[in-house]
Amino acid sequence: MNATSPRGDGSYGTAASAVPASGAAAAAPGRIVLLTTSHRVAPGLLSWPAWQALHGADRVLCADGAHPQLPYLREAGITVEEAAPTARELVDACDGGRTVVVVATGEGEPRLTDGLAGLAGSGRVRMPELELLPASYDLPGARLLDLVQVMDRIRAECPWSSRQTHEGLAKYGIEEAYELVEAIEAGDRDELREELGDVLLQVVFHARIAEEDPDAPFSVDDVAGGIVTKLIHRHPHVFGDETATTPEEVKEHWLRTKAVEKQRTSVTEGIPLGQPGLALAAKLASRVRTAGLDVPLPRGEGIGYELLALAVRAETEGVDPEAALRAAGRAYRDAIRAVESGAE
């Protein structure tokens, strides 16, 4: 099979024919172009090299009569034959220097490409030039569209997923968030990727449920649009005229714009009281310190007030008390296992 090399236009061009040609036949090896497209890009939006190849081809073939690109190709004046030739038939169709473009199906053309590779490897067939030409490309984040489509189908067809509510899923969001934190602290990259996916699933699942609300529906696009607007507004040093050269200045921008947005009357507003106690205490201390307030710790008896003082001290020293306690807890777990192993 012909070797391929990247071109500047994003397509892949042929380096050389697999079998050296001689005589009159060497003048016209022909050309096969395998045209691939992404279902994540609107049909008809093809690259300029793809349109050039299609308009310059002697024949255009497609095995899938329902291929979403076909109506747009025909509208552009391109004759598309609904055919699924064998590798040998495709090679023969290139005799006389003809160019044949194959519009690949969604699954690609493994039967055809395997057959062409077999012919080229046999050394008995003079192969035409072979070119893989991506006609449309996935942009970063394109697979999120797949996730939305899969979630739509699951919500419609799965007996369990179709009955879920925001309230019923809430506990899973908390669990997945903790598992994500655990993967981060363990430094496990594979686990981190998986847990990020699980957290993302919760977001998409809740957004899909929200579409069905009769009074105030919203979609995943509304969710994404909202966070995009928020990020742009809270980063004037990136998207606006302000400047920030240190993380502290960035945080100041963030807090200032957030205060204007929320119009809060207290630094405690927006702090979820249902979060773990050490994290709650540290968050309150952070708000107090950032606002420059002088707030003495409440005096009281019991372990709760002692833990509060420890959490505030940790935040002042730049230590996450929850993470510190989890690290100590893991050390305690290891000590327990060591004793258990010794007992065995």
- Tell how many strands the DSSP assignment holds: 7
CATH class of the largest domain: Alpha Beta
Strand coverage percent: 5-15%
**What global shape is seen?**
elongated
How many helices? 13
CATH H-level homologous superfamily name of the largest domain: Tetrapyrrole methylase, N-terminal domain
Content-based structural category: alpha/beta
CATH topology of the largest domain: Cobalt-precorrin-4 Transmethylase, domain 1
Order of helices and strands: EEEHEHEHEHEHHHHHHHHH
User: Which strands sit side by side, in order, in the main sheet?
Assistant: 5-4-6-3-7
User: How would a crystallographer describe the biggest sheet?
Assistant: 5 strands, parallel
- Give Rg in angstroms: 31 Å
Oligomeric state: single chain
Mean pLDDT: 88
Termini distance?
A: 62 Å
How much helical structure, as a percent, in the residues? 40-55%
Q: Show unreliable segments.
A: 1-25
Task: Give the SSE layout.
Elements: E1 4-6, E2 12-14, E3 31-36, H1 48-56, E4 59-62, H2 70-75, E5 81-82, H3 87-93, E6 99-103, H4 110-122, E7 129-134, H5 143-157, H6 166-186, H7 189-210, H8 220-233, H9 236-239, H10 247-262, H11 277-291, H12 303-316, H13 321-343
Parallel strand pairs: 3-6, 3-7, 4-5, 4-6
Antiparallel strand pairs: 1-2
Helix pairs in contact: 5-7, 6-7, 11-12
